Amino acid sequence: MPIEKMLAEECDVLCLQETWLTKQDLGGLSDLHPGYVGVGEATTDLNSGLLRGRVAGDVAIMWRSRHGHLINEVRLGVDWAIGIEYRSADHHFYIINIYAPYECRDNEPLYLERMAYLSAFIDNLDSTCIYLIGDFNANVLNANRSPPGRQMIPNYNVQTLGVVENFYG
């Protein structure tokens, strides 16, 4: 589904994973749609040499510019996660968008490292309302059958609003 269609459908906040953007492309996120602002993180820097294959991973968050006075970007200091903080008189929460695909047991050490990093980061936030959105390529909600779920469920009161497995139009 084209990003223009997603943004036109009354989406206030849009979290994107696997954007295939480079570090040089990130500044253009706020130019994709006149009513939106965007921030992101990328793994690929075109200034570092020859690019082989496709650009991997990367995350971005876009939000309606009319909410800009209520939203601050949150940098986690890694190239696989980006966040925003929403603070109004009535509400205060964070949205953290991550790319942490588990896929198979070979990726478990990297996945566990990322979960530990997120856990430490979340523990230092000044809100208990945190939305963790992302690409896990795993069933993080089933702690009995899923190693990623076992790593996430015991540590936090995980509640789901819904799981979108694939969003292609």
From TrEMBL:
Residues 10-138 form the Endonuclease/exonuclease/phosphatase domain. InterPro entries: Endo/exonu/phosph_ase_sf, Endo/exonuclease/phosphatase. One of its GO terms (molecular function) is catalytic activity. This is Endonuclease/exonuclease/phosphatase domain-containing protein. It comes from Capitella teleta (Polychaete worm).
